[in-house]
Amino acid sequence: MSTTTHGLQAWIDHINQAELPALGAVVQDLHRLTQAQGASSVRQLADVLLRDAALTTRVLRAGNSAYYNPSQESIKTISRAIVLLGFDNVRLIGMSVSLIDGLLPRAPRHQLLELLARSFHAAVQARTIAGYVLSRHQEEVFIAALLYNLGELAFWGSGGTQADQLAVALEQPGVNADAATREILGTSFRQLTQGLIRSWNMGDIASLAQNGAHLSDPAVKSVSLGVRISEAALQGWESPAVAQLVEQLASFIGVTPEEAMQQVLASADEAVKVAVTFGAARLGELIPSTDPEQIRLQQERRQVPLLMANLQVLQQALQDLGMMVSKRASVTLVLDTLLKGLHQGAGLERVMLVVLADQQRCFRARQVVGEGTEAWLQAFELPTEQRELPHIFSYALRNREPLWLGIPATYNLNELVTQPIRAHIGQGMFFIAPLMAGAREIGVLYADSRRSGRALSHEQFVAFQRFTQLTGRCLEALARRD
């Protein structure tokens, strides 16, 4: 953002007018259809969804999924979806997909992904709880829990440089998160959520859920328990926080603690299916798993210290490389500056430079940085060309352009990430680019954030491209002097 936004009303205006107007409009329109559900409401629901072809497609895809449509009866129109799935289900699908589409295409930060995953988990837990104590309004409970952290979701989706500032502030040891938020935003996330809910006319359950004084209302109590269970689950299913909430849940819905725990675990599994159904499989990966091995892996990921981008280090490294183009510098200094800029500056957790070796017959790791990369120096080696098994490293060098693997634009290249490569780097997003000295092929640069499992960002890819270009110019200048 070019200007600073400060204060509650300023953020509400910013989100509604500048950043997420389409999302707000769709959510409001879908919410208004909660009252009379006669023929006119069915037509109105269809009209809202049909205004956006992409939204219509996503709703129909979800409607045809095994989760919502186990009989696999073909659904080709919104009106047919309403008949087969029910008015509330289609409205809920539309609102959930709108939230995903409105936030995730913005090169999402890890804070947004984690919070959105927690929101879907909370929504499923809350809806399941509501099924025990309410004869209706279960879908309203789902939506209220889904939007419980709406203000924070909207901020991480549209906060720009102020989101960068808050992310850095929250990483400081002993920080008071609420105080840091108020200082940078001029309001709290809770106030922003309440303001947006009023602005979007989200109704009684969503509004009351923000106020702890209304916990005697079964719907509000369901939302509160769902939200708190989704938060406590991040500490582990065996944690005291989860055990305490399970005791409360058992008392609330009239079952034994053992039965309540089984219901909580089943809802966690269901939340993963819901995220996948809505086209957000990466959110499902962030919902605490009930599988013992996956629990261990998720806990390890959460224990990895998050490497934060450092704009000062990034700018200094770019400046140093720029000077090295005209001033004589060793290859070692150039490569050290490159890796420092990408790792400490751009916040890329693992970086590896592989060079052509053995008379250009293979790629071999030359320099690495990041936790767990030391093994690459001894083990990473690939043949440069294999007609029977081409791979992404040779492809990147041959095509001479930086690539971002793991996004839709490069899905067609996924088969080039061969099993031997995955054995070294694992699964997930990564950047890869050829390193050239003029027309001379040097090797390939690789980077990811696999240690924490965070999604890569557009800003990181821009930095990755810039560092690759400058390093190539430095190496070309050195080659001309030799």
Report on the architecture of this protein.
InterPro entries: GAF-like_dom_sf, HDOD, RNase_Y/CdgJ. This is HD-like signal output (HDOD) domain, no enzymatic activity. Pfam families: HDOD. It is built from 24 helices and 6 strands. It folds into 2 domains: 296 residues, Hypothetical protein af1432, CATH 1.10.3210.10; 171 residues, Beta-Lactamase, CATH 3.30.450. A 6-stranded antiparallel sheet has the order 3-2-1-6-5-4, sandwiched between helices. By secondary structure, it is an alpha+beta fold.
List keywords for this structure.
single chain, 482 residues, alpha+beta, Hypothetical protein af1432, Beta-Lactamase, 2 domains, six-stranded antiparallel sheet, 6 strands, RNase_Y/CdgJ
Give the ordered list of helices and strands.
Answer: HHHHHHHHHHHHHHHHHHHHEEHEHEHEEH
Low-confidence spans: none
CATH class of the largest domain: Mainly Alpha
Tally of strands: 6
What gross morphology would you assign? Answer: elongated
Overall helicity? 55-70%
Overall structural class, as computed from helix and strand content, comes to alpha+beta
Please, what is the average pLDDT? 85
- Radius of gyration over alpha carbons? 25 Å
Q: Can you count the helices? A: 24
Largest sheet: 6 strands, antiparallel
CATH architecture field of the largest domain: Orthogonal Bundle
The number of distinct structural domains comes to: 2
Strand content: 5-15%
InterPro entries: GAF-like_dom_sf, HDOD, RNase_Y/CdgJ
Organism: Pseudomonas cuatrocienegasensis
Pfam families: HDOD
Protein name: HD-like signal output (HDOD) domain, no enzymatic activity
